[in-house]
Specification:
Helix content is 77%, strand content 0%. It contains six helices and no strands. It is globular.
Amino acid sequence: MSSLLSLLQTYLPQAPGILPKWLLFVSAIAVFNSIQNYTTLKLTQRVYSARPQDVNWLSSRTFGTWTFLSAIVRAYTAYNIANQQLYDVCIWSYVLAGAHFVTEWLVFGTASLGAGLMGPLVVSSTSLVWMMTQRGFYTS
């Protein structure tokens, strides 16, 4: 079992701290989310629970593609966290995600504050604050 754990650790980002591993974890979750956006509408309808009838296959696939792009940015950043430009692009991916979910909730009224929206809001805001407060540590 310890050899399996050692093998797994060789594939994790080698930079110090937990943030690179967190970015990789969030990236993996985003890949799962992208796949589900191409296969079912159910989980996406949970996010946009105030108007689930507005979720269709086109919007779901578009959201899945956008989510997969954010997964790529976050995975690259996890393994290249000292790259200041990539770090900043990753920060912007969280700004964009947070802004999207907040505007869908408060401006457009398609999302409601519940289980489907809380996950994306917590991940985007926590990751954004974490990355902004640790920028100097990782990029200097």
